[in-house]
């Protein structure tokens, strides 16, 4: 009768497989047939499909997986540095590490308790990481596929030794688009940004939407 909520078991909607490199991949499914795939390499979301099976994320066919580097595509979490504004690798090292699945993470309140599937991932720094970024942290990432097919990522960074540190963070997201001229990015008006193409000078966004005439890089 279409009432799945009473019997929906989110753990049964989560499957762990291995890719051809032996790296674990978590597949999330919702009752309507949408899915998402998360790689333990970088905690990177490599696929997000709607209920018609259409892929919503871009993955470059030219990107060759070379462990431990993230591939060009999907959604990766950049931490503890975004861009080249610090001494670390350009988008931080978190996306280039192997994460683990956390079965019993600290509680996290979320809506949509029915018909969703999710996975909790955890990254802790290795001895090597601490050598060039000496800050004890735990980075928790929850990736959720909701009953309406929407995807959400919640990141929690915990300082585990009480010594203050600063970091930058971003979700590096590649959407798959069929016609870039139809894309509008809204919600940035009045926000300040540093323009990478103008020596990182600070500007304030004036437009109500950013549009594109062709590919940019
Ligand atoms: O590591 P990836 O996914 O290929 O992304 C690299 C790109 O990341 C972007 O954020 C930078 O602005 C680009 O300059 C850079 O080329």
UniProtKB/TrEMBL annotation:
This is Glucose-6-phosphate 1-epimerase. It comes from Solanum stoloniferum. It comes from the Eukaryota. It holds the Pfam family Aldose_epim. SUPFAM superfamilies: Galactose mutarotase-like (SSF74650). InterPro entries: Aldose_1/G6P_1-epimerase (IPR008183), Gal_mutarotase_sf_dom (IPR011013), GH-type_carb-bd (IPR014718).
